[in-house]
Amino acid sequence: MILSEEAFGHLGNGGSLGFADPSARLSFGYTMNRQGGGTGLEDRGQALVDAVYRVLGYRRGARGGMWYI
User: The pTM is what?
Assistant: First the structure.
């Protein structure tokens, strides 16, 4: 899961996740009505996280990595 440096949280089974980022004044929860495969974060969950950080004005380096303001 790629978040900002200050964020903390937990991945759940099937692609669900929850985290908080105090510096962004953000809390985030994502769960589906059907579990995805595996136990890690899936592309759709990371895409939602990325969209939230982008809307808040955060950026990532040219090579990806953590979100920063």
Answer: 0.83
| Sequence-distant contacts of 34-42: CB under 8 A, at least 24 apart | 38/14, 39/11, 39/13, 39/14, 40/11, 40/15, 41/1, 41/11, 41/15, 41/17, 42/15
Is the pLDDT at 39 greater than 80? The verdict is no
Alpha helices in the chain (DSSP H): 43-55
Q: Domain boundaries in the chain? A: 8-68
* Cβ 64 vs Cβ 2: under 8 Å: yes
